[in-house]
Amino acid sequence: MRDLPPLSALRAFEAAARHLSFKKAADELSVTPTAISHQVRQLEEWLGLRLFERHVRRVVLTKEGKELFPSMREGFDTLVRGIDALRAPPAQEVLTLSSTVAFTSKWLVPRVPAFRAACPGMDLRLHASDEAVDLRAGGVDLAVRYGRGAHEGLRAELLFQDRFAPVCSPRLGVGGVEDLGRHPLIHFEWRRVDDATPTWSRWFASAGRRYRAPGGELRFSDESHAIQAAIAGQGIAMVSLVLVAEELASGALVQPFGPELDGFAYHLVHLETPRHAERLAPIRQWLLSEAKKLEARAPVRKRKGNAPRRR
Length: 311
What we know:
Elements: H1 7-19, H2 22-29, H3 33-47, E1 52-55, E2 58-61, H4 63-86, E3 93-99, H5 101-108, H6 112-118, E4 122-128, E5 142-147, E6 154-167, E7 185-188, H7 200-206, E8 217-220, H8 223-231, E9 236-240, H9 245-250, E10 261-271, H10 274-297
Parallel strand pairs: 3-4, 3-5, 7-8, 7-9
Antiparallel strand pairs: 1-2, 5-10, 6-9, 6-10
Helix pairs in contact: 1-2, 1-3, 1-4, 2-3
């Protein structure tokens, strides 16, 4: 068993010797100068030695105090290093970003490594839902919304305006619109359809052709599934050029012919408060930067104005 004086007395002596001031030691340890003086006196009585010469407004270490101080300082420094090594690192801030299922899987997930590099002090939680979440209810910090762009009570920034066109695997050997009837048409089933929804029927009307699908049809309720079917060579799909930008760049998909159809606006939205603006600044800047990269790589038009509501 170690025969040691009270730890509080050792702490008081080490702080007072380091500062050569009872008052500064008291400020550091959140006690009164009288308490420091009492604890140092207690140590001196335990040792049977004087450690300080006390003068008006200052103290000076005695010969014995100078001998004791280095070991006390090193001892407390070693203790601090040991505790810091075991202490759990501070938890990183977790931000939750919500978007549609297709946008999350096709656009956000592949860019998670870029997010980690750009925002090393944050963790990202992706919330995928085709239903618009209520940001005021908490649980979600910001969202990428796809639709007309009416986001009352929220700060909204345009990321890009989508375009739709026929795409397919190069393995199909589609050379032009005359090959359209040789392969199934792949559809994404929209929840709400009007005259401006980018469907195959609207595409045929825009192309001045009669709608017909002699090669058959495939229908999917999830847009990412429609894209995967196109990549697998199962037909020609009418899908978002934003969501297939990587596949078009890599050659996994081709856009064999036009015309292109206007799609919908992607907006980054969050609560319009100073606290949110400050917390979300890094991820907001990252998203806007990634949107600019996509715009530079692919002919995705970025323009203002309303588009038909998708989800």
